[in-house]
Each structure stands twice: as structure tokens, then as C-alpha cells.
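Usage

Read records sequentially. Each one opens with the input sequence:
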Amino acid sequence: MRRNKQIDIQRALALSGALNFLCSCARAWLLPFLTLYFRQLGMTPAMTGVIMGTKYFITLVWSPVGSLLAKHYNKRRVLLTCSLLCSAVMPLTLLLIPHTGVHDQIDTCNTTDVSTSPTQSFTSGVIKLTTTSTRTEAKSTSFVGLQPNVTVSAHISAPAVDKTSLKKPTVEKSHTLKQQVNTSSEENTSNEEKKVSSSPTNQTSSSSSPPVNQKKKTRKFRREVETNSGHFEFLGSLKVMDPQHQLFFLVLITVSMWESASAPLEWTADDGLYEYLDFADASDRYSSTGVWGLVGAACGVGGAGLLVNLLRCVIANQTARSAVHFYCNTIVVALALPVAIFLPLHLNKKRDKANGLLKAAQLVRASPRALLCAATTLFVGAACSAVDNFLLWQMQDHGSNKLHMGLSLALALLSQAAFPFLATRVSRFLTPGRVLIVGAATLGLQCIYYSFLWGPWAALPAQVFSCVSTGAIWWAVQVQCEDIATPGSERSVQRIYTSFSLNLGGGLGSFAGGFVVQRFGLTWLFRGVALCLILWCVCLPLLQWKAPRQRRINYSRLLAADASEGSDSDSEQERDWLDKAMEDDRSNNNHGRRMNQ
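and closes with the structure output:
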């Protein structure tokens, strides 16, 4: 009885739901708007795609490895605490990285955030001014930033210029600047010669010292340089790069460290909770905690858009408004920290997760239809990552502010969470394979719609169809997992599909999406994604028709059938015994009567 009192299933489910809600809410405060912050820093689409793709690949590799290590050394709670602390602190370091090109839009309460070209951009030490009145002067002064010890003051607000003066060439200005550069360089060389000539004591001391000591000093200096060159080679290479590439590597290192710290959080918490519920014979209630993640993400992204839009009247600088996402993420993660401390966890050393994942991969490989489902999730994951990374860029270019973005993303998440309530009706008309085709085709139509946006609220109607696209796809994947999984391997098979879609597909889609936007633009990215999805939806029914159909073995029905057959045989045996006994009794009674007569 004392052992049963320690197991509180309702408390465990409540704490797990709260942890999923808070963690998803914290990620939604920051991650959907992170690519916008990279754009504000001045990074190119290709750089943004590489950073987000690296983030997905780190999650793909480090999530199972970190969870296995935490289970092996029985440090799950320590890992959860450290992961939450790093998730709260590491994103704030991105605010310390300086900008190269700033998309600052100083707006008022009556205006909206419209993506315009930056007014000033400082790249590779060259001063570029995009003001129309001083554009010709900036072209003639662009080479001056490469010369040392030269400062050029560029005035943005230039006085009024006559039309006749604009027609004259700017050769005279360039000649005067070259003369200034030459005079400044001559002054620097003359000052250095004076300093060298004004130190006779040093020359006499060096000449009096023997040459042997000088050779030893030079040898020591060379050794120190050779030893330190390996340590500071990377930092030296960063100094040689232009500011944009320096920014890229700094952000890449920061995001990689952040993702390495936070990647094992979800797997570790899920494993501990599932083993706790399995120990209490309540593992069937594990799936009830997954809905809170979507609800928390919807609340987080919607609240972020609403709060930043309200602060637009108070904070005029867009950089300061972008920092609100980071600070709110830290606050929500801090609220999740005590929940993770009191979350009930259980360690089942007999359950080997590595073997479970290998068996799940073998089950997926053995079924042709399961392989087709995995390929579909890979395409869908790549498409979703490309859309998630650059949809807000497209909305920003068409006049959307953070309120429009937050509400559209929240509507998509809520509609995705609503599909399980419609699944019973949909399953009467469509099989899971056909639902997979319909979901991928609907996602392709959404991408076509995103390429033709025309206003701030234009993306909102398409987000409703996320119920039919993303929600339907994940429902079909879950049914496929139940079809091929053996008892106890359902979670491992589902993790194989999520790793294919969210991590592997997301990484490939981020890399490809960034380079496509860099080369062809945002519009052709969405059209290319839609074309690939529609072509796959055309090929998928033919492949499903050619794939051999494997009949599903329903173990629960087999057990019920065995029980019913056993009960029927027992009843028949009892009836046969009773009939024989009654016949024997009747025969004995008749024989006794005859003997008495």
C-alpha cells in the first residue's frame, strides 16, 4: 500500500502537461521570429538557411545521444535543469553581437512596419550612403575606408544642390580626397622617423649586448609564435574576414551552443515520464500530454505578436522591440524550471532505447508503405522548414507587422491541433494513405498562395488549411506507426518519423531554401516548394499501388478471439459433461426400478 501511495498519476500528467506548455510557449516566443532577427542583423538568406539547417542537424544527432547518456548515468533531472538554464541564458548572447546592416524602421502608432531598404549599411569598412542627395559623393569616397588613419565624416542631410551642379563630374572631389590621403600618410611616416631618431639610448644598449642573446631571444619568440599560431588561427581568420562573415560565424557558433544545450530536453522528459507511467501501468494515458505543446506554442507566438505590436508606440527602435522576444523567452523558461525539478521521473534500466530505435528502423525498412510514408514526411519536413524560415520575410515585404505574423502562426497551430477531432469522420471516407496525399497536396496549395501575397492580412486565410495539411499528415503518420509497430515499440517508430520529418527534412529544407532565396527570390521559393510537393503527390498513388500490401496483425483481436474460443470450448465441455451425467443418472434410476420390480 505504501508503494501505491507514492504513485500519483494525475500529478505526473499535470506536471508533464505544464512542462510541455511552458517549453513550447518559450520556443514560440523566439524561434518563429529568429530569422527576422537574422535579417535585421544584415545576414543574407543563404547564411540564414545554413544557421537554421545546422540547428536541425544538431537536434537530429544530439537528442538521442544526450538522452541515452542521461539514462546511462542516471542524470536525467540534472540534464533537464542544465538544459533549461542554458536555454534561458544562451539566446541573450545573440543580443551582444553588433549589427552590420540594420533594418531599423522608426514608426509611430499610425504606421506599420514595412520592409524597406536600410538607410545605412557598413560592410567591409566601406561607408555606403543610400540617400539620394549624397549618392554621388559616396561613390567617390568609398575607397577611403580602406586606408589606415583616415577618418571621413559623411553627412546624410545634405543641403540643397542646384541642377547644374549635379551634372558636373566629381573628379575634383576625388582629387582633393587623394591629396588628403597622401598628406596624412606622409605625416605618419615623418612622425615614425622622429620617434626612431629620438631614442639613441635603445640603439646603444642593443649594440652593446652580445649577438648570442639576440639569437636566443629571436628563437624563443619564433617558438612562441609557432605555438600560439595554432590556437589563434581561427580568431585571426575572423579578423581578416569582412564584418558580414564575422557576424555569420559568431551567430552560427552561438546558435550551435544553444541548440546543443537544449536539444536533449524533450526526449529526456518524455522518456522519464513514459517509464514512470509504465511503472504505474498507466502508459495508455501518455498521449494525452501532447496536445498541450500545440496549445502552448499557439499562445506563445500569438502573445509575442500582440506584445511587440503594443510596444511599438513606446519603443521606437526596432532592435529594442526584437529584444523583447529574447527576454520573454528567458522569463517563460525560468517559469518552467521549478516544474522540471518536481516532475516525477522513473529509470527503467531494462528498457534499452538504442535497441528500440534500431528495431523501429528495421520495422520501417521492412514495410514498403512505411518507407513511402517516411519519404513523404521527409518532403513535408523540408517544405515546412522552408516555409517557416522565410514566410515572415514574405509577409514583412508586403507590409505585415508582428501582430499579423503572430496571429497567422497561432491560427495555423490551433487548426493543426483541431484535426484529431475530425479524424473519425475523415477515416470513413479516406484511408490513411489517401489522407497523406491530400495533406501534402494541400500544403503545396498553401505554398502557391504564399507566393501571391498582396497585403498585411493576406496570409491569414491560408493558415486555416493547416488543419487539412499538417494536421492530416501527422494523423496519417500516427496510424502508420500503429500498423507496423509491435507492442511496446510505438514510441520508437513515431520518433523515427519525427526525426525524418522535423530534423533531417528540416535541415535539408533550410539549406536548400536559403540558397534558392539567395538566387531566385522569395516568390520562387514558395512556387518551387509547391511544384515539388504536387509532383510527389502525383507519384505517390502509383507507388502505393505498386507496393505490396501487408495485412495488419491486430494482437488485441487475437487475444479476444482466443479468449472467446476458449470460453466456447469450456462451455461445450461443461454441457457435454452435464448431459452425460444426466443420462447416466436416468439410466441408473431406470435400472434400479427394474430391479425392484
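Summary fields computed downstream for this record:
- The domain at 7-110+247-351 is CATH 1.20.1250.20 (Growth Hormone; Chain: A;).
- The first strand starts at residue 120 and ends at 123.
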